[in-house]
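JOB MANIFEST
job_type = single_chain_structure
chain_count = 1
residues = 328
[input]
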Amino acid sequence: MAALIELQGITKRYGDLTAVEDLTLSIEEGAVFGFIGPNGAGKTTTMRILTTLLRPTTGQAWIAGHSVADEPQAVRRAIGYMPDFFGVYEDMKVWEYLDFFAACYDIPTATRAGMIDDLLALVDLGPKRDAYVETLSRGMKQRLCLARTLTHDPQVLILDEPASGLDPRARIEMRELLRALQGMGKTIFFSSHILSEVADICTRVGIIEHGRLVAAGSVAEMIGGLRAHRAVSVRLVPGATDVAGAAAWLRDRPGVVSVAVPPASATDDVGQAIDRHTLRLDFSGDDAALSALLAGMIGHGLPVVAFGEDAGDLEDVFMQVTQRAESK
């Protein structure tokens, strides 16, 4: 599938400060790309370059085949941008707010009413059509701002922290709305600090640190790259097992690279209770070998109460790659 968003060697400097450095990235049509990184890492600067609000110091970017630097009007037609801090005209009614922005995009008057009703239905604000914007909750204003970005039916949505400051219910509503937009074929580029939500919805993720892209790929690929071997947890029946003896037996099994035995102390360094009956294995075999290991444990008489692979998550990836970047 063709790339709809491309960045080649993008660098942005402010005097001696480098906000983004040599950023190269390609995002396919229909993708949902999550852009994550610490505060000040360069996320918003990158988005402002893509939306034609900033010119890069060096490098080039294209959206839908249009140069961000040379064809800004064409780029603006192709995108819908929702910044991290957005203003709303609070003395307008909800429908008037959307009508105003539709007019800015030269949407014909005759088609605006139907389009506005469709957008309000999409973002679940139909009952608030005649309410004043100032009466809306923050979550409703977020959804209204997202509806505003859709008035000209853009191919690409660039959303800077769309769930920022929302309560749990509003975050869930925003996530479901992004899923709906994904189903409509929109290409979505959004930043977030809520890692679980990024992992839940994105087809690809990029991690930026100190202005440099330090990792990119699907969530599954990035989690898979965390370890050289599979991580497996084995919990034995408390009080009925020689844990050290079980660990010694496991170390001699095919595919078992290492076995970590819980320490003898009852708590860890921060005072949390330690489960002294759970062993952590590094395992190099495939699924069939893992199944054979479990069968062997049962056959040997080990009282296994839980057995499973620790898949890891995006938070593990984020911490590892950002710490690696910090150490360089």
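[summary]
The chain has eleven helices and 14 strands.
The two ends are 35 Å apart (CA to CA).
exit_status = 0
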